[in-house]
């Protein structure tokens, strides 16, 4: 009797792998259809500096051999190390073409893979229904869908975390393979290179090796060798680029707060970070998981007993990996939902698997029938829902098409983005309208400024007077709000001046008024004006 029940739980279709795989294939198709974003739309890169540097620095590496970004004609090291751009994004440029929007395609692939890993974990816990609901639960996490459509590391790192969880389940169920320990080390190393905090994945694997008590030394070496190599590579890059193994692009670009730990971590940030977490789906996922587990405990049967071990192992991995990340970000100065995406993903997989156990195998056929309907729905929604217009890209293309090659263009678009799309390969000069524009707002510090006077008071004091007195440099020396006389002189010498006004905001009203005191603004296209001396 128990054997027949177990067969119902684990799926009597074990001898028919195609029957088991088709729900996975449909789930992957649903994910690809729902999350796909065209490269042209994605080329807007609306999250500077992150998405801009991830997409453009590897292009610079391909074309010049230097991993850098170009700011007003000057090559500078990006804020982020080369590992994610080179390992994840650069292959898309090599295989396709040098269109910056192609950077979104690897992100989409990671997102689809993440759903596949969620399926595999859920299936280990609750057979095919568990796989279906775990995958759908992950796809239903709003933050997952949002960040899967941006050129950012968040979804790739989440997919790697889920891959790590799946590998952990394999290792703890059949310990002793040195190769699997090495693969785990490789996975942690890659995740750590993409985002250092994901080194927390190491803890679960290390504990698994210690608990097995088999070939401890050899297995530990196999696990740690790739991780140590990744750390050494990062230290070498930092030393060569920023002068110290422990100094990175954050210290270079944002010495405040990066050089002053008291501004990065504080108990005063806990409240805002809790609010950020509370605004996500994470609390609801916790409630669903806990309620489902309490109901299952009252209904102990063969299904629950069979699921207990993989469920406990999954919870262990998710806790080991994400609790330390949670604690870090509770004290971190910058709140955001994306920092908690690994915990949301892990909790979604657990909650989906528990709900599948609660529903039981009798719902298996219903869930399978639901998948084609969801694929059709996702397809229809994508057809009737327009993609976000790449307004920054459109503005840049207007500048490139409608201004002379020797023009000087004033804009509120960050100069790295506009410099690539509007001025790349030409002598056009990009001038930020004011210091509020990204990159123009930053002081760079090639070396740490010790004891700046006066000291910065807040994490957002990127232009603290003490930094300037201590030797920090302007990342962007020339901005319109500070160089009105120079702009007037350039115009008098015959330099064509243009104002790209599409992204000007209320904070730019004063600068715009000063421009209009000296120049007539002649419309050349929506948001684009030629500036002529009055």
Describe this structure in words.
It is built from 24 helices and nine strands. The model is unreliable at 1-15 (pLDDT under 50). The strands form three sheets. A five-stranded mixed β-sheet has the order 4-3-7-9-8. It has helices spanning 2-10, 17-35, 39-42, 50-64, 83-95, 104-139, 142-147, 154-173, 178-194, 201-212, 216-242, 249-253, 255-258, 261-264, 270-278, 282-298, 302-330, 341-359, 364-384, 391-402, 415-423, 465-469, 484-492, 509-518; strands at 69-71, 74-76, 408-411, 429-432, 443-444, 473-474, 497-500, 519-525, 528-533. The chain folds into two domains: 2-384, no CATH class; 391-440 and 475-533. The protein is an alpha/beta fold. It is 62% helix and 7% strand. The longest helix is centred in the first third of the chain and has 36 residues, at 104-139.
List its traits.
alpha/beta, 534 residues, 24 helices, 2 domains, 9 strands, two-stranded antiparallel sheet
Low-confidence blocks of residues: 1-15
Indicate the multimeric state. Answer: single chain
C-alpha Rg, in Å?
26 Å
Number of domains: 2
Blueprint (SSEs and pairs):
Elements: H1 2-10, H2 17-35, H3 39-42, H4 50-64, E1 69-71, E2 74-76, H5 83-95, H6 104-139, H7 142-147, H8 154-173, H9 178-194, H10 201-212, H11 216-242, H12 249-253, H13 255-258, H14 261-264, H15 270-278, H16 282-298, H17 302-330, H18 341-359, H19 364-384, H20 391-402, E3 408-411, H21 415-423, E4 429-432, E5 443-444, H22 465-469, E6 473-474, H23 484-492, E7 497-500, H24 509-518, E8 519-525, E9 528-533
Helix pairs in contact: 2-6, 2-19, 4-5, 6-8, 6-17, 6-18, 8-9, 8-10, 8-17, 8-18, 9-10, 9-11, 10-11, 10-17, 16-18, 17-18, 20-21
């Amino acid at each position: 009797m128990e054997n027949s029940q177990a067969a119902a739980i684990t799926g009597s279709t074990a001898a028919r792998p195609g029957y088991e795989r088709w729900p996975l294939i449909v789930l992957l198709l649903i994910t690809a259809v729902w999350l796909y974003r065209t490269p042209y739309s994605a080329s807007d890169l609306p999250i500077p500096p992150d998405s801009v540097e991830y997409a453009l620095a590897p292009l610079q590496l391909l074309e010049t051999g230097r991993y850098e970004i170009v700011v007003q004609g000057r090559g500078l090291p990006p804020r982020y190390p080369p590992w994610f751009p080179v390992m994840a994004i650069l292959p898309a440029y090599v295989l396709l073409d040098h269109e910056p929007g192609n950077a979104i395609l690897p992100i989409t692939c990671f997102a689809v893979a993440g759903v596949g890993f969620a399926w595999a974990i859920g299936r280990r816990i609750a057979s095919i229904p568990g796989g279906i609901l775990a995958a759908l639960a992950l796809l239903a996490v709003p933050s997952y869908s949002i960040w899967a459509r941006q050129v950012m590391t968040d979804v790739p790192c989440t997919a790697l975390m889920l891959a790590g969880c799946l590998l952990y389940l394999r290792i703890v169920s059949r310990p002793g393979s040195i190769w699997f320990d090495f693969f785990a080390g490789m996975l942690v190393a890659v995740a750590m290179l993409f985002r250092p905090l994901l080194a927390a994945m190491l803890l679960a694997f290390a504990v698994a090796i210690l608990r097995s008590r088999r070939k401890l030394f050899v297995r530990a070496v196999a696990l740690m060798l790739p991780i140590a190599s990744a750390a050494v590579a990062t230290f070498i890059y930092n030393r060569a680029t920023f002068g110290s193994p422990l100094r990175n692009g954050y210290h270079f670009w944002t010495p405040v707060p990066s050089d002053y730990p008291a501004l990065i971590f504080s108990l005063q940030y806990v409240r805002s970070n809790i609010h950020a977490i509370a605004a996500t789906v994470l609390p609801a996922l916790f409630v669903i998981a806990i309620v489902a587990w309490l109901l299952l405990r009252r209904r102990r049967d063969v299904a629950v007993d069979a699921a207990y071990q993989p469920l406990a192992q999954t919870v262990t991995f998710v806790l080991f990996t994400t609790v330390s990340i949670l604690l870090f970000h509770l004290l971190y100065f910058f709140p955001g939902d994306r920092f908690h995406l690994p915990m949301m993903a892990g909790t979604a997989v657990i909650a989906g698997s528990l709900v599948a156990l609660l529903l039981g195998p009798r719902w298996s056929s219903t869930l399978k029938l639901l998948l084609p309907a969801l694929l059709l729905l996702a397809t229809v929604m994508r057809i009737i829902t327009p993609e976000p217009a790449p307004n920054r890209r459109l503005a840049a293309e207007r500048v490139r098409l409608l201004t002379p090659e020797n023009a000087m263009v004033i804009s509120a678009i960050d100069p790295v983005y506009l410099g690539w799309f509007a001025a790349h390969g030409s002598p056009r000069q990009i001038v930020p309208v004011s210091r509020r524009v990204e990159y123009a707002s930053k002081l760079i510090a090639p070396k740490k400024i010790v004891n700046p006077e006066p000291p910065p008071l807040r994490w957002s004091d990127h232009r603290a007077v003490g930094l300037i007195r201590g030797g920090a440099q302007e990342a962007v020396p020339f901005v319109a709000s500070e160089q009105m006389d120079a702009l007037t002189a350039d115009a008098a010498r015959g330099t064509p001046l243009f104002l790209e006004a599409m992204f000007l905001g209320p904070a730019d009203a004063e600068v715009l008024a000063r421009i209009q005191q000296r120049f007539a603004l002649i419309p050349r296209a929506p948001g684009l004006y030629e500036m002529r001396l009055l």
